[in-house]
Each structure stands twice: as C-alpha cells, then as structure tokens.
Amino acid sequence: MAQKRIAKEYSELQKKPLEGMKISLPSEADMHQWQILIDGPKGSPYEGGVFTLHLSLPTEYPFKPPTLSFKTKIYHPNVTNDDKGSMCLGMLRADEWKPSSKIDAVLSFAKALLLEPQADDAVEGGIAREYKENKKEFVKNAKAWTKQYAKR
Amino acid sequence: MADNGGTQRELVFCHSCHNEWLRHQHGLQCPDCDSEFVETIDEHSDPRHNRTDTSDDDEDDVMGNNDDQLPQNPLHRHNPWHNPAPDPDEPDIEHVEWNPSAGIHFARTTIRHTGPGPRPQGRGDDLFAPFIQGFSTLFEGAANAQVQGRPVGGTPARDGPRMLRPPFATHPFPEQHHHIHHHHGGPWGGDRWRDGPPGVRQVFTTTGQFQRGPGPNNQQGQNVSNVLAQLLHTMQASMAEQRDQPASMAHFPAIIAQMLGNGAHGDAVFSDEALDRIITQMMEQTNTNSAPGPASAAAIAALPKKPADKNMMGQDGKAECSVCMDAVEIGDEVTVLPCNHWFHGECVGAWLKEHDTCPHCRQGIMPKDGPQDANAPRAPGETPRNIPNPFVRPSRTNTGAGTPPSPGPGPGSADNNPPPMPGAFTQPGMQQPYVPGGYPRYPEPRNFVSPGHHPQPPSPQRPQNDRRRSSGRERSSNGGEGSSGGGGHSGGVTGWFRNLRGGGSR
C-alpha cells in the first residue's frame, strides 16, 4: 500500500505543486526518500533563502509517520540546530499521527512554521526565548543564517 | 628477606578465582585454585580494577559487569588522577567505569600514609565526600550500603579512616536499582604487611555502582542521568571551595558529564537549553509510549460493512479511502466505524490492529466500559476508550495546513472560529449516518468543506471535557481530508493562518 499511496501523493504534488516548493526524488528508484526545496516565505526572516528538506517515508507509511528534517541550517525555534535538523511537528509524532494525514499537509505545515514559529513547542529553547523576548535580535540572526547557509 | 626486597611486596592476582597473595609467599601460582592465569599487580596495571569489587565476589554476578562483552566508553580506563611521577606510597587510584547496560561504576583506592612525617591531607576523601553524600541523599538510600574502614598497619591511625556514612532510607525509585557501595578497607590483611613499611598505612577503596534496571529501560537510565547532572552541579560547587586541590580534580564533573553524555542530551548538564532538550526528549518518549494500543481483532472483524452509497460520496459524487487513497465507487464494500467514518475494510483493519483510533478523527472503536479485548466494537453512541488526546497542545495538532478553515462542530469552537461557511451546520448532511473517512473529491476551486464530509457528528457522543480541543481536532481532521482537494492549496498557508489566528489563540 505504501508504494502506491506514496506514488499517488507524489504525482499529485507534481501536478499541483505547493507554492514555493519543489519536490524531487534524489533516487528515482526509492519513492520513500523525498527532497524538498522550500523558498523562505515572503515576510519571514528566511525570505530570499532556499531550504533543502528531506522527507523520509517509512515502509509502513501511512501507518507510520514520515520524518522531516532540514538539510539546510536554519535559525528556527522548532528545528534542531544539529546535523539532524529535525523539525518538531506534532502531527508527525507517533501518538498523533493518523493515516489520513497527507504529505502535502505535512509540508504546508512545515512552511507555515517558517512564517510563524511555535516558540512554545520549541526544540531550541534559546532561539525560542529570543523569539519571544527579543524578536529583533531573532530576526537579525535568522536573516544572517539565511544569508550564510540558505543562499540561492 | 633483604635479597628479595624488590619482589617481596608484589601482589599477585588470580584471574580465575580473584584471589590475591604476596608473590614471595606463594609464587606465581594461585594457592587457592592452582591456576596459573595470574598477574602481578603494580601501580601501572591493576587487574582487580576491572572488576566491580575486589573483595566481594558474590556481587559480581548481581552487577553483571562483563567487560568483555559490552561496548565500553572510550573513557573506560581513563584515570584523571594519574600522576606521571607517582609517589609509590600514595597512589590514589581512581577508576571510573561506564557500562551501557550495567550503569556506572566507580572505584577509588587511596593509600594514605599516616606514619612519621607530614603528609598532605584533604586530598581525597574530602573531595569525594560531597559526591557520595549527594548521591546518597538524592537516592535516599541505595540498597546494600556498606561502609567499612580499616587501617592497615601496626598501630591505629591517628585520625582513623574517614567514614562516609550517608543517610540511607527507603528506595525512592522502585524500578531502579541504585547501588551504592562504600567499601573502606584494604584487600590486604594486616598480617601480610608484617614486612611492610613502618608507620601506619591506610587503604581505602571506595566503589559505587549506579545500575540501571533490567531490560532496555532507557528512559529510566536517563532519569538517573538527570539526577546525576543535578548532582554534578552541587558537586562542582563544593569542589570549588577546595582551594588547594590538584587541578585535575576540577575535571571530574566534566568527565562524568562526558560519560553520561552518551545520548543525544549528553552535553546537557549545565545549560537551560540542554535541559529543555532533555525534557523534550523525555516528553516525546513518553508520548510515543502513550500512543493508543490496538483494537481487538474480534472487534475489528465485527465492524459493520456496507456497500458505499451515494450519501457517502462528495459533492461531485466521488470519494476515496483516506488510508490507501484509492477511489471508492458506489457499491464498493466499505467498513464503517462507530464514529461514522468509513474506509476499505482492509485498510482500516491494518491500522486498527495497531492503534485503536479512527484514522481520521482518532476516536477509538473499543468501548470504554468493557473488557480490554471486547469482541465487538462500541455502539455509535457509546464512549470510546480512546478519545483524541486532550493534553496535546492545539498548536502542535493543528495540521490543517492547506485547508480552508472549517467550523468546529460544537458551539465552543464556533465561538472563537467564526465559520466562513455558515451553511455547513445547517445542511442535512451533518446528520447522515455515514461520514466518509475518505477524501471526497471536490470540484475546483473548492471553498469549503462539504458538510457531508464533516469528519465528526456534533458532540453528543463526545465527552464534555473533550470539547475544549474539539476545534483543533476538527481542523486537524479536515487537514487530511481537505488537503486532497488540490484546489484548496492555492490559499493553503493563508488559510492555515487565518485558522490559527482565529481559533488558535487558546
């Protein structure tokens, strides 16, 4: 089932791409690994940058949730600032996942999170605090990182 | 005796039975077991320290400290107090051992010379005391604590061995086995030192063991790590007060921290951020474990099956199973859950046998009141055992990305989320017996969610206390559904935000 559904979702997303996102398969032979390029949303400090994400779909998909990670370093409260770049998405957690959630919803959510970080659900506490208490500084840092790591 | 003075004090250790003796007395064969698998002990190589306890053989089995089979921390043999120019009279031997399954073990031997002449004091146990005390206080009593001290030599020590006797009380973590073992006293009997140096020699061995519970109990291990992290704070503070301590001692907390730092949260000890990370990690683990269990096979099999009828279709007369995303035509057999969502029987069965939640709205099919493995699903009006988790924060659950906001089914959510499509509630579709869990296929552009596909009937069958979050849940349910519509995406993110701002202010 996984293959079929993934293929379906993939072709749907190719036909009707999400705005500001390019989805591709790094290896045509493996439908389970997707690469996503997200443009930093307008009005966010990530504007002008392009971020590479990796979506990994388990063989049990849709019974097990996919995982989403940032390959491009990003200054964001909800993305771990390590080599994993894991994104904190509630809907992807095992106890919240449901098979009717679709990849486009996951990706849209990820993008929305770029526009509006959820500081209360942060994985990077320091960045979250800065976001809440010193937005100016946060924006400055996020922009600097975007410039440094997410150049087009 | 004078001619073999070089070897007379050499201790020999038997690897077979862990016996030890003086070489000049019994030679290189174990007097107890006749084994020749022996090793002489010197200050560079002390095989006894590979073991958890040099003097108590019985405990080894309990501790299961098997160096050979388990991966070892790189610091396994690290000796931070190793002195490149050792004073043979005062070899403070410190040994900390990290063992992934058995926990952390440390052993420390201090040989203190209290004979004639001034000796430096306060180097060893003074520093260690707060550490031991801290552990003991925190764990409030590990089982099996022993404190023994025994000066070795001809005359009693002036100040005697320091007794580190922490308060021991009841065990606070019933599932864990913290074992603190203070052992003072040398492995050498006094008589073995009859040729020893003049003055009084004291040998202190301090060992401690922090052992994880049996089995792959990572989380508990992490609890220990966290407690240790706190302890290290305390310890560092107390050590800072020790002015004339050797510089290397200051690294001790760092070394321990490093050892604990095996996991992703390792460096996590001294900063708030790191603490956040630990907490997040633990919460995630906890929540993972709290994912709903399976529904009983009998109940799954007993779910009603119906041929799909036209009421189940979307506005354009099409629908699909939201699990496999295959189209469902009128007349195809589908399985209907008590929440009225329907799916292919095979698809929903595969999910339910792992998690008793509707793939769409996450209400379970098992009745709340009934045996764990009830062989029938609940009646539609009956309270499900699993209801959408009320503890999940809405911001995390809001998966409605790409979906136009939809009104929640209850007044609670309608209040803070003005319905953009007022018709939704009033349409008769709301009361239809079957609500497809599948994705209705909408003509594009689609502006609202068809009421017929509202994922949940309004709340009489939902418990009151679940209402608070019902709008978040509704939106999340629609997120999956609506996102298939394709046309909804053009305004997807904005829609999500309208939704978030409108209803997400809780």
Automatic annotation (TrEMBL), chain A:
Provide the alphabetized UniProt keywords.
Answer: ATP-binding, Nucleotide-binding, Transferase, Ubl conjugation pathway
Q: Which residues form a coiled coil?
A: none
Q: Which InterPro entries match?
A: Ub_conjugating_enzyme, UBC, UBQ-conjugating_enzyme/RWD
Q: What's the protein here called?
A: E2 ubiquitin-conjugating enzyme
Entry GO MF terms = ATP binding; ubiquitin conjugating enzyme activity
Domain named UBC core: which ranges?
1-151
Matching PANTHER family: UBIQUITIN-CONJUGATING ENZYME E2 (PTHR24067)
User: Which Pfam families does the record cross-reference, listed alphabetically?
Assistant: UQ_con
Keyword Cell cycle recorded = no
As recorded in UniProt, its EC number(s) are 2.3.2.23
From TrEMBL, chain B:
Keyword Nucleotide-binding attached: no
Q: Give me the stretches of Basic and acidic residues compositional bias.
A: 41-54, 464-476
Class of the enzyme per the UniProt entry, highest EC level: transferase
Keywords of the record, alphabetical order, are:
Metal-binding, Transferase, Ubl conjugation pathway, Zinc, Zinc-finger
Catalyzed reactions per annotation: S-ubiquitinyl-[E2 ubiquitin-conjugating enzyme]-L-cysteine + [acceptor protein]-L-lysine = [E2 ubiquitin-conjugating enzyme]-L-cysteine + N(6)-ubiquitinyl-[acceptor protein]-L-lysine
Q: Which CDD domains match?
A: RING-H2_PA-TM-RING
Q: Region Disordered: start and end of each range?
A: 41-95, 367-506
**InterPro entries in UniProt:** RING_finger_E3_ligase (IPR051834), Znf_RING (IPR001841), Znf_RING/FYVE/PHD (IPR013083)
| UniProt EC number | 2.3.2.27
A Gene Ontology molecular-function term?
Answer: ubiquitin protein ligase activity
The molecule here is called RING-type E3 ubiquitin transferase
The organism encoding this protein is Cladonia borealis
